[in-house]
Design goal:
globular, homodimer, 6-stranded mixed β-barrel, alpha/beta, 43% helix, Barwin-like endoglucanases, 20 helices, 4-stranded antiparallel sheet, 505 residues, Transferase, Pyrimidine Nucleoside Phosphorylase, Chain A, domain 3, 4 domains, Pyrimidine Nucleoside Phosphorylase, Chain A, domain 2
Chain lengths: 505, 505
Amino acid sequence: MHDAVQSSVVLRTRRLRLETQQEPIVLLHADCPIARSVGFTARAQVELVAGGRSALATMYQVSDGLIGEHEVGLSEDVWSHLDVPDGTPVNLRHPLPVASMSAVRAKVYGHRLDDDQIRSIIRDVATERYSDVELATFITAFSSHQADFGEMVTLTRAMVEVGEGLTWPGRQIVDKHCVGGLPANRTSPLLVAIAAAAGLTIPKTSSRAITSPAGTADTMETMAPVNLDIAAMRKVVEREGGCVVWGSNVGLSPADDIIIRVERAVGLDSSAQLVASVLSKKLAAGSTHVLIDLPVGPTAKVRSPQDASQLSEFLTLVGKEVGLDVRPIVTDGSQPVGNGIGPALEAHDVLAVLRCENSAPADLRTRALLLAGELLELGGAAEQGAGQTLAASILDDGRALRKFLAICAAQGGFREPPVAPLRHDLVAPEAGRLASIDNRLLAKLAKLAGAPAAASAGVRIHVKLGDEISRGQPLLTVHAETPGELAYALEFAAANARILQLTEA
Amino acid sequence: MHDAVQSSVVLRTRRLRLETQQEPIVLLHADCPIARSVGFTARAQVELVAGGRSALATMYQVSDGLIGEHEVGLSEDVWSHLDVPDGTPVNLRHPLPVASMSAVRAKVYGHRLDDDQIRSIIRDVATERYSDVELATFITAFSSHQADFGEMVTLTRAMVEVGEGLTWPGRQIVDKHCVGGLPANRTSPLLVAIAAAAGLTIPKTSSRAITSPAGTADTMETMAPVNLDIAAMRKVVEREGGCVVWGSNVGLSPADDIIIRVERAVGLDSSAQLVASVLSKKLAAGSTHVLIDLPVGPTAKVRSPQDASQLSEFLTLVGKEVGLDVRPIVTDGSQPVGNGIGPALEAHDVLAVLRCENSAPADLRTRALLLAGELLELGGAAEQGAGQTLAASILDDGRALRKFLAICAAQGGFREPPVAPLRHDLVAPEAGRLASIDNRLLAKLAKLAGAPAAASAGVRIHVKLGDEISRGQPLLTVHAETPGELAYALEFAAANARILQLTEA
């Protein structure tokens, strides 16, 4: 009887070229007979079935000529899920309720979740059965009631299970992660080059910016392609020992990508989720030894040594349980590391360090050598205490640069990062000593200048905490690709003197 | 500088007639120069300013010809907020972050919220500054960490403060609320008629169905207009002593309407939110004495006597603190009250009781007299213990019917509810005794048949728990307005034998 009803009125697909950032949306005509017969109203969740494929979406209704009465308009996300040409007949039906939401509600009410409950939630998240408000409920529940050790372990494993997995020959596969919140600090490409040059295997996946001016993947992309699939990533690592690719494209932890987007939107990030997010990606990448950089500072993500210490403990213990040797390292997060903030600006810093140029930011070089030393020791390429010296020699004799260029070539070819056509210096209005840097405002300034969509846009910072500044001295240079973005950023800078605060000289 | 940038490219409004159920959406062309210059990407929250008005919306991008590069397409919600004709120049900007979300996050982490924090949240919710995921976070936080007494009181008061308020002459203004979850149970129109006929003032606002087959407002609308504004509602009550109008249209508790929609979507409903929701609407309506019906049953909203008892205590104590005399009454919620489920079907039951017809459902009459008796006593129209007798005499001598028709006339005119053109009996496959009724499946069946959008659609139930049933006896009759809806409902009924369960005779 179902089929008889459904086939009496058939809707045909129409790609709307509607970009919604992974939010599946379909548009129906308000008088669409099938919507009426099935009892759909605007904002309903619907399931579309065409050929053998199905997709969930939020349905809205249009009453003018945008959509015909027998059409269903598809957002890009729905269109790519169904993967059918325009005009394909499609059935609409009520989606089944997401069964695992009952487990989420149990967590809301303070109950511990067992393995099956956590696995069912993550499976439904990864297959995009959760709406955004359901995701927000899941995230809030785990922020309201801290997961215990066992829940964190299960969460980590469940996130690995729903993604692709990689394995490598050899016993020690190293990796690195930074908990973030600090602009620039682009040490990853340097670490990958040094570690791979030292003979280690380091299959590094990185993220793109979500709320920051640049992710490592955005920076890397100004120098080489990063949208590699899992097979291409494998080839690069097999050939060169390391890579720097965009993680979401590889599909190592699809649930995590979905969760992170909503976490950012509501400003929550539970320890459990952070631990599971970081470790699941490393596990899925086939890593065995992971260095985790935890920058601590008043405007970084981790704000106090106590928080860093607790997070370190979670990462280490959960890591051990799932088979990862985790080494957390707490670093100074009070100011940017490197001078450039924005994809290409950060890439220029990375290349300057690799090329041992005089203009290379000393703090980025120092930070990279510190972390690379730890990584070489962790991976067994250097004795305890000898890692930094080895890292410095690999950098200084050009092996790191050659390895980096070889990795870029393997990923599809090296290119020099672009330079922004528009630049404007912001100078010190008075003399003084640089007392504080607000990393969040600085990131915002770089974003308003166009980063990361405009790859060459962003901010270059010319001063460090404690510097004595003279009146009129350039503090920041805003880089932009369009006059509008430049003006917008400068207006923001003028209204936000707190970005850099000077005390009287 | 801001103005100079903004005015360089002006977007013009275009009403899309896009129905999104209060979700504000705007569409821009993917190449829209202003979006690029301001750094907007798809799914960003944007603020539109046109003339002196502004509106928040989620922005999506379209890359084909639906929207011009210099246009901004408005969903109906945004269009009605801005209230400007097509082609009006509009500025887009980044909305300020919602400051009160920091208070929500404090609640997530288990902190008690003070009065200012709760007030700021509810103000931002009422002015539609919260996105859906932020609303879900707020709701989940209050479900994860039960509000204390003081928080409930503040939440209730805050919800009153952001809405319209009514006051009435006289000291005792009565009202009634049902915590719901039981199909049919349409006692409100009967109570209003009886109480107003007894000389009491009862300014009743009701809701429309959100997830149920009919709200009281939907049922009432099949007999009289219910979309009255606050001034019209006042006139009806001043003239007749009572009314039954749609609450959201009156605007007594705008924050509540917004919160409830997301609560339903995620399946959460905290006690605090329920208490604040119910009491704030009664306070705003100017009521002083409120009867609250709490049907308890395994498939009703309140599932156990313990839950009912705790909720009663919250309602009574918070009510007292905000100046409401609340009388909770726990009733049987194991099966529907009345025979019809669906707007017009329930209206027919109500009219049959008012008209004292032989076919009138006895259980609906009994339930209405029980509640009306309590209400008359609560409002001082009857001595303790004499309420039900007075209520019965008002019903039996036709005063209730005359009052009801007068109220309908005052609201815009009485009409007979419609009758569905298509009806289909579902009969007992075997003989037996009716052992259980799943209220939720029954409601779903009525919705699939078309209720509440199709006013005459729904289900009529012919049996009660414990009835001896013979083979082939009609159990339910499905009413529908279209063949598609009828077939869809029958298919569901065939697949869900659990709706009514018989034991062997």
